[in-house]
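INFO  loader      accepted 1 record
INFO  loader      residues=509
INFO  predictor   begin
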Amino acid sequence: MTQTIKETKRPPYGIIAVLMIGAFIAFLNNTLLNIALPSIMKDLKIEAATVQWLTTGFMLVNGILIPATAYLIQKFSVRQLFLAAMGLFAFGTILAGFAHVFPILLAGRMIQASGSAILMPLLMNVMLISFPVEKRGAAMGVFGLILMSAPAIGPTLSGWIIEHYDWRMLFHFVTPIAIVVIFIGFFMLKDKKEKVNIRLDFLSLLLSSIGFGGILYGFSSAGSKGWDSPQVYGTIIIGVISLIVFILRQLKQEQPLLNFKIYKYPMFALSSAIAMVVNMALFSGMLLLPIYVQTLRGITPMDAGLLLLPGAILMSIMSPITGKLFDKIGGRILAILGLLIIVVTTYGFSKLTLTTSYTHLIILYSIRSFGMSMVMMPVSTNGLNQLPARFYPHGTAMNNTMNQVAGAIGTALLVTIMTNRTASKAKELGDAAMKHFTEQPTPAAIQEMKQQVMAQAMLNGINFSFLIATGIAVVALVLAFFIKRAKQAEDPGEVKSAAKKMTAKLAGN
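INFO  predictor   done
INFO  writer      dumping tokens
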């Protein structure tokens, strides 16, 4: 595929446009569902610990499948992969739309994930090989503009649909769009793939699935089951052991499933580390803010969606601007400024009260989104720029995999911190409140006291989690000072090949 696209005189805008539409639909679907989770809980009579698997299950499938995308991108054409990915996504969407029990809904979500896991690395790889390094920032900026418009539309659209229709309409709304995109891809994508002599190492795929899957499942279960559960620490231990064996096997393979040797390129290794740390911190906003807004403040789904709208619009507007700035000044200054904003605003979220104004929340979230727009794309693009072209599929697959793992770890860590802090604070406040009663309180008084104590305790837990997230963001800020403008490294494979040809030529003379 790389060779096919390189032979064209200009970037394949048609292919990129079709891929972006597919990625946009997958992105939109995720943002639609977040606001709907409370409605799904009520309709299907399930707890928060159960419904969160609609998000966790999606991440789990992504974490298992993304490592295989480097192989798939090298083996199959863009057309073949795109149609297969969108077909899986559409089937999962249809299944979820007609689900009347949670297991079917979860199955639909996981099938959707199997399709979207292929789409993003595929699009990133096409973008990397289609544009020269000096124009890549602007191209990635346009890419970010289109994808960031999904979070701008999603929550508000979802809130409106939930208030007027059944939550299943979210899936019914996406289904016809996904089918139309499949037809567009079928007729527009014409690229052909030369036969590549590469085979799938099934043992590596199995070790990767157990490794990443075990770690993701273990950390994702920790919030509901607790760290002392054998199901949690057992799966994490199995995952870590499998992952170590997987990495050692990849280092010995001539054609690894996921090439860990790319971490010898310092800027890629640094960008990967920063992205992982930032993802851990950013999940605090995605996870804790909806709990605060809907559970503690009783804000409607529509208003909760509107709260996120200005920030998402700001990210969309900033994405192409950030891309052009990246081409001119590099990623270091952008990352440092962006992370400073993220640190300050995340700390601001650790000072929430039960009377914090809606306007204050919008402004704080919007400024935080502005900071985010200056970090993720410049940092990851700078790292990928250092890789030789044949390592692009491995670089994009590695980044996506590590971001999924970091997101799951961050989510589990912050949920556990919030849960434990809420429980300890509830006991402390409850004991203090009982001392204020001079005589035996009535059941109504006890019930009112419990509600007030739990609200204050949960607020304290959320604020403390945001404080921890601030500390995590500070780590990313420190790492950002070591960023240097990346130049594409020489491909060791091509150097060896040239040396062999020169040796043969001299021997012939």
